[in-house]
Design goal:
194 residues; 7 helices; mainly alpha
C-alpha cells in the first residue's frame, strides 16, 4: 500500500459524504494534460484544478505557520526570561513598540515570515502561487486572532505588521521559487554533457 493510500481513502470518504450533502460543492472534472478536453497539449507545467491538493497544502501551510510562530515566539520570550504564551501569537493588542517585549513580538512575526517563505517554496512550488497562499494564510490568521481576542483587530500596528509579513513572505517565497526554476536541468549521459 502506498503512503498516500490512507490519505486518499480518507479524502474519498469525505468527498463522498460532502457529495451527498452538497452535490454541487464537490463535483469537479479533474483534467490531465493528456486529455483532449484540457486543451493544454504541449504546454509546459500546465496547472490542473486539484482541490484536494490545494486544501492539503493550505492546511499544511497553516500548521507550519503556527508551529514555527509558536517556536520562534517561545524562543524569543525565553531569551528575555519571559513566559511563552499564545497571547504573543494571537492577541492583536500586543503590537506596539513601547516595550521591549512587544518589539520582540514584532521581530518574531517578521522572522516567522521568512520561515513561511521557505514553507511556501517547499509546498507551493510555483512563484505565481506564493501571493495566493500567503494572503490566504494571513486571512485565516486574521480570523483566528479575531476569535481569540473576541473583537475585530483595530490596532494599526497589527495591520501594518501583517501587511509587512505578507510582503516579506511573498517576495522571499517567489525569489526562492524562481531560483529553483532557474536551475540547470542536468543532461546525464547525453552528448551535451561535455
Amino acid at each position: 500500500m502506498s503512503a498516500s493510500g490512507p490519505v486518499h481513502s480518507l479524502w474519498s470518504s469525505i468527498v463522498a459524504v460532502l457529495g451527498r450533502a452538497f452535490p454541487n460543492l464537490v463535483h469537479y472534472q479533474k483534467l490531465t494534460t493528456n486529455s483532449p478536453a484540457a486543451g493544454m497539449q504541449g504546454k509546459f507545467r500546465s496547472s490542473v484544478w486539484d482541490p484536494p491538493l490545494i486544501v492539503s497544502q493550505m492546511i499544511t501551510m497553516q500548521c507550519i505557520y503556527y508551529t514555527t510562530l509558536g517556536l520562534v515566539s517561545a524562543l524569543v520570550m525565553l531569551v528575555i526570561h519571559n513566559q511563552p504564551s499564545l497571547h504573543y501569537v494571537f492577541d492583536t493588542d500586543v503590537f506596539h513598540i513601547s516595550a521591549k517585549v512587544n518589539q520582540l513580538v514584532l521581530v518574531s512575526h517578521l522572522l516567522n515570515s521568512l520561515l513561511g517563505a521557505v514553507a511556501l517554496w517547499m509546498l507551493a512550488w510555483r512563484a505565481k502561487q506564493c501571493l495566493d497562499f500567503a494572503c490566504t494564510l494571513h486571512l485565516f490568521h486574521f480570523m483566528c486572532c479575531w476569535i481569540y481576542t473576541g473583537h475585530f483587530p483595530t490596532s494599526l500596528m497589527w495591520w501594518l505588521v501583517q501587511l509587512l509579513c505578507i510582503i516579506l513572505m511573498v517576495v522571499t517565497g517567489e525569489y526562492l521559487c524562481f531560483k529553483s526554476d532557474m536551475k540547470d536541468i542536468p543532461l546525464v549521459g547525453s552528448k551535451a554533457d561535455v
